[in-house]
């Protein structure tokens, strides 16, 4: 069975989105067909606007449409504590915690197996942040996988060389979790990272 | 761990089999191509999620049916559990333990020790065979080993990649090298400890399964020299770091990692001489069987219960005297075993449960 060409085209376009398979794409396309033209136009316009106006803040990497971004211009934030993340989406997660420090997103161009080593990371903006003298502590909030570990060790080394304290997020038990059901690996990590109480 | 009930549907040539195995020795008898090994394969498939004969799950489905279903109910340490496995071309493979998706912990999974004729190469074959042997046990025993092993493999891949690209002076290489040493040491320590336990077990078993036993000894062989004396994480790390530094030139030249747990070996000595070079074919077979039995014993020493033993066509490899000694050992053992053979061939099997299998159908012999 052949679909009308514009419909087929819309389905193909929706398929480029992550987590969208052929069935969902078709469902979304048929739903859009039922919407009033005005709403569809709004949706399309919102996509274009967002893509055209939003970009990573050159200072911290948070997604913004103004410069400096809302985080950088907020003077009530603690300038002495800097959280380093891999992606802008990680900042959104950190913000939900109520963290009141500042951020830095690495322009992550690091993938060893694709021949992009640590040298490929542009550290200039990061060094400038450290050398401004305001930062007293760097919190490494990188993913707990091997690439994250390599990045963490690397950043820890250069940060410590600037005589800035380096910490990293703890690994361990989820809040509200049951010790009984924690796997031994997580529990071991939690034990290693225990705190004086 | 003992299997109380086993169910196979549309697996290989078997349309449907339900059996309640004996707690001790279960003996499956039948001609070639009747389905003896399929029963062992099904148990192993339930335990590990992969077959020892086929990489394609689709090959395991009976040729005229759409999907297979396996179920085992078993107990261990006074606990009951069951594992089910279904496979259909469209839905893929679904494993459930006690009706739920398996979690990170593998505590309630079915555990097996498998012996197939190919394992005779354990003694004679390449070091990789012996490393796989160690890794398989350690992964079943400890989640942490499993994690460390995957970690190590991953880091090694990166390290080799950097060496191949001649980036041994890059910042990445320094850090990857540190991580490499950290994770290598963890694997080494676990394997060294395990081989000690294995050594003690295998000696005892070897004496029971031989009429005139020679002395058997197993040692873990590192890919770099280690002084005698106290071995712990720190001394190992120190030594490995030193060795890695010393072989820098060689690695730069060969552009590959030249030492580490992925190149180690397990040496088996018979009367002080390397069994790989000096033991006869028959002796090597016998040692292979003993190693597998020692795997069971060591598992029990560490985890407090025995896995299920699966022995495929092992009797054909042994002389009649050793055959009877092995059967007697299994009959007296505290673990459950499943054994396949073409014939009973002058073996005294007084207390075993004997099943005959013909064309995918099973019958218990009274």
Walk me through the structure.
The complex is a heterodimer of chains A (197) and B (366). Chain A contains seven helices and six strands; from the N terminus they run αααβββαβαβαβα. Chain A is α/β, with parallel strands linked by helices and 197 residues long. In chain A, the strands form two sheets. A four-stranded parallel beta sheet of chain A has the order 4-3-5-6. Chain A has a two-stranded antiparallel ribbon with strand order 1-2. The longest helix of chain A has 17 residues, at 37-53. Chain A is globular. In chain A, 16% of the residues are buried. Helix content of chain B is 42%, strand content 23%. In chain B, α3 (127-141) crosses α4 (143-164). Chain B is globular. The model of chain B has no long low-confidence stretch (mean pLDDT 89).
Number of helices of chain A: 7
Which strand order do you get reading across the main beta sheet of chain A? 4-3-5-6
Return the CATH topology of the largest domain in chain A: Dna Topoisomerase Vi A Subunit, Chain: A, domain 2
**Name of the level-1 CATH class of the largest domain in chain A:** Alpha Beta
Radius of gyration of chain A, taken over Cα atoms and rounded to an integer in Å: 22 Å
Q: Classify the beta-strand content of chain A into a percent band.
A: 5-15%
Q: What structural category arises from helix and sheet content of chain A?
A: alpha/beta
Q: Which range best describes the helical content of chain A: under 10%, 10-25%, 25-40%, 40-55%, 55-70% or over 70%?
A: 40-55%
Number of strands of chain A: 6
Q: Would you tell me the structural class of the helices and strands of chain B?
A: alpha/beta
- Give the low-confidence spans of chain A: none
């Amino acid at each position: 069975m052949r679909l009308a060409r514009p419909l087929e085209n819309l389905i193909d376009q929706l398929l480029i989105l992550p987590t969208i398979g052929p069935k969902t794409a078709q469902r979304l396309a048929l739903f859009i067909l039922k919407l009033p033209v005005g709403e569809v136009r709004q949706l399309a316009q919102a996509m274009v606007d967002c893509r055209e106006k939003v970009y990573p803040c050159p200072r911290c990497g948070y997604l913004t449409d103004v410069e400096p971004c809302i985080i950088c211009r907020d003077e009530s934030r603690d300038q002495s504590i800097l959280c380093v993340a891999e992606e802008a989406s990680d900042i959104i997660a950190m913000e939900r915690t109520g963290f009141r420090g500042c951020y830095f997103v690495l322009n992550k161009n690091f993938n060893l197996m694709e021949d992009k080593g640590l040298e490929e990371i542009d550290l200039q903006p990061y060094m400038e942040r450290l050398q401004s003298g305001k930062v007293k502590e760097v919190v490494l909030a990188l993913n707990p996988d091997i690439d994250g570990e390599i990045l963490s060790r690397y950043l820890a080394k250069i940060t410590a060389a600037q005589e800035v304290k380096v910490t990293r997020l703890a690994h361990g038990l989820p809040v509200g979790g049951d010790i009984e059901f924690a796997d031994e690996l997580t529990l071991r990590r939690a034990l290693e990272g225990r705190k004086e109480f | 761990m003992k299997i109380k009930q086993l169910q196979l549907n549309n697996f290989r040539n078997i349309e449907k089999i339900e059996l309640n195995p004996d707690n001790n020795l279960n003996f499956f008898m039948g001609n070639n191509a009747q389905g003896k090994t399929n029963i062992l394969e099904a148990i192993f498939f339930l335990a590990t999620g992969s077959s020892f004969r086929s990489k394609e799950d689709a090959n395991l489905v009976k040729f005229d049916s759409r999907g297979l279903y396996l179920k085992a109910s078993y107990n261990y340490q006074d606990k009951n559990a069951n594992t089910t496995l279904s496979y259909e071309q469209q839905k893929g493979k679904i494993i459930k333990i006690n009706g739920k998706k398996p979690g990170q912990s593998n505590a309630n999974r079915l555990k097996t020790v498998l012996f197939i004729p190919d394992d005779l190469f354990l003694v004679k074959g390449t070091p990789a065979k012996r490393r796989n042997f160690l890794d398989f046990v350690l992964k079943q025993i400890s989640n942490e080993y499993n994690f460390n092993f995957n970690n190590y493999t991953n880091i090694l891949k990166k390290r080799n990649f950097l060496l191949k690209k001649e980036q041994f002076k890059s910042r990445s290489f320094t850090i990857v090298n540190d991580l490499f040493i950290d994770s290598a040491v963890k694997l080494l320590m676990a394997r060294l400890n395990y081989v000690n336990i294995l050594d003690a077990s295998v000696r005892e078993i070897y004496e029971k399964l031989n009429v005139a036993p020679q002395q058997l000894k197993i040692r873990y062989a590192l890919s770099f020299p280690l002084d005698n004396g106290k071995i712990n994480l720190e001394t190992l790390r120190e030594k490995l770091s030193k060795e890695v530094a010393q072989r820098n030139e060689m690695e730069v030249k060969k552009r590959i990692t030249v030492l580490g747990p992925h190149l180690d070996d397990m040496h088996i000595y018979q009367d002080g001489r390397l069994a790989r070079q000096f033991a006869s074919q028959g002796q090597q077979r016998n040692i292979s069987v003993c190693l597998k039995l020692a795997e069971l014993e060591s598992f029990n020493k560490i985890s407090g219960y025995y896995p299920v033993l699966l022995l495929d066509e092992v009797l054909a490899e042994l002389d009649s005297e050793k055959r009877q000694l092995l059967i007697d050992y299994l009959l007296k053992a505290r673990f459950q075993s499943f054994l396949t053979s073409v014939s009973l061939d002058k073996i005294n099997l007084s207390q075993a449960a004997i099943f005959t299998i013909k064309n995918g159908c099973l019958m218990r012999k009274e």
